[in-house]
Amino acid sequence: MDKPRSSVFPWVAANLGEILVALAVAAGIFMLLLALRALLLQTGKRIGPHQPLAGVFTSVVRKTRMWFMAALAIQTVQGYVHPPQDVSKTIVFLFTVAAALQAAIWARALVLGLIERRTIGPDSDTASLNSAMGIIRLLVSVAVFAIAAVVVLDNLGVNVTGLVAGLGIGGIAIGLAAQGIFSDLFAALSIIFDKPFRVGDTITYQGKEGPVTGKVKQIGLKSTRIRALTGELRIIGNTQLLAQEVTSYVGRASYRFQLPFGVIYQTDPDMLARIPALARAEVERGGHRFIDAWLKAFGPSSIDFDFLFEVEDSDGSRANKALEAVALGILRTFKANGIEFAYPTQTSFTAAPDGTMIMPYPDDRPATREGKPAG
C-alpha cells in the first residue's frame, strides 16, 4: 500500500513563484527590522548623556535577537502564499516560541537595567552590589523564563493549570522553609537600593548592651559588619538592623556639645555673673560657635551651670579634640580667676561623751573672760 504523499511538495511546486516572492519580501522586512534596530541604538547612544533612561532603552533594544526578527518577517508574509495547514501551524508555533523568548529577554533587560540605574553610583558598594545583582539576575531570569515556558506549553496544547498551581505551592513551601534567609536577603537588597547608609558611613544602632557606634565595613546578603569605635567587629542581621532606628552621621557639618559644670557655693556672686562670658571667650578663642551658658540650678553641693557650643567640623575625632581644648581652656581660666569647681562633699558633726559638740573644723572664735568661746 502506497504511503500518502505530503501536501507540502505539491504546494511548493504549484506556488514556487509566490514562495520566492514571499521570501524576498520577508528578507526585505528582516533588513528593515535590522535597520530600525540600528537606528534606535544610534538614537539612544546620541541622547544617552541627556536622558537618564536612554541607557536602559538602548540595552533593551540591543537584546533584540536576529532569530526573532526572522520569525516575525516569515510570520508577516505567510498569509500571502496560503501554506498548508501543517506548515502554517509550524510557522505560528515557531513564531510563538520566538516571541515568548524575546519578550522574556526584553523584560529581563528592562528590569535589570532599571535596577542597575537605581543602585549603581560613584559611592556604591561594588562588592555588595555585585553579590546582590547576582541574586537579582537569577530571580528575574527564573521568573521571566518560567512565564515564557508556560506560554509556549500553553500554545502546544498542554494544560498548564496544574503546572502553575504546582509552581505556586512549591514557591510558598520554599518561602516558608527559608523565610529567615529570604528576610535577611530582601533586607540587604533594601539597604543597597534605598541606601539608608553605605560602606564607610558611621552609624549608631541599638545593641544588646546599649547603643553601638561604629563604621560600616561590609553589607552582606545576610548580615552587616560594623567596626565599633571600641575596636570590635559587630555582626548584625540585616532584618534586625532595619527593624530599629539607625542614626547616620554622614553629611554632618557640625557637632553640638553640652558641657555642664558646677562651682562651689563660696564663689562671689559677681564672679558667678562673669562665668558665661568667660566660657564664651574660650569658645571663640578656638574659632567655634558659642550658643549659651547660664546658671541652671542650686545643687546639693554646687552651683550648677549649663554650657552649649558648636564645632564646625564634619570629622568626629577633630570635633572631640576641639571639645577637649575648650574644656582645658575653661579649667585654666577658672584657675586664673580663683573659681573652684565643686565636688560632692558632706560634713559630719559628732559629740563628746558629755554631749558637748565637737566641731569638724578649728574653732577660732574669740574667747570670753572665763576662757570659753564667745557664744
Major β-sheet strand ordering: 4-3-2-1-5
In angstroms, what is the radius of gyration? 41 Å
**What would you call the shape?**
elongated
Overall SS class: alpha+beta
What is the ordering of alpha helices and beta strands?
Answer: HHHHHHHHEEEEHEEEHEEHEE
Q: Mean pLDDT, nearest integer?
A: 80
Give the helix tally: 11
Low-confidence stretches: 367-375
Largest sheet report: 5 strands, antiparallel
Total beta strands? 11
Give the end-to-end Cα distance, rounded to a whole number of Å: 150 Å
Helix content: 40-55%
**What percent strand?**
15-25%
Number of domains: 3
Write up this protein.
The protein is α+β, with helices and mostly antiparallel strands and 375 residues long. Helices cover 55% and strands 15% of the residues. The chain contains eleven helices and eleven strands. Strands 4-3-2-1-5 form a five-stranded antiparallel β-sheet. Strand 10 and strand 11 (357-358) form a beta hairpin. The model is unreliable at 367-375 (pLDDT under 50).
In short:
The protein has 375 residues and is an alpha+beta fold.
Descriptive tags:
375 residues; alpha+beta; SH3 type barrels; Alpha-Beta Plaits; 3 domains; 5-stranded antiparallel β-sheet; 4-stranded antiparallel β-sheet; 11 helices; 11 strands; 55% helix
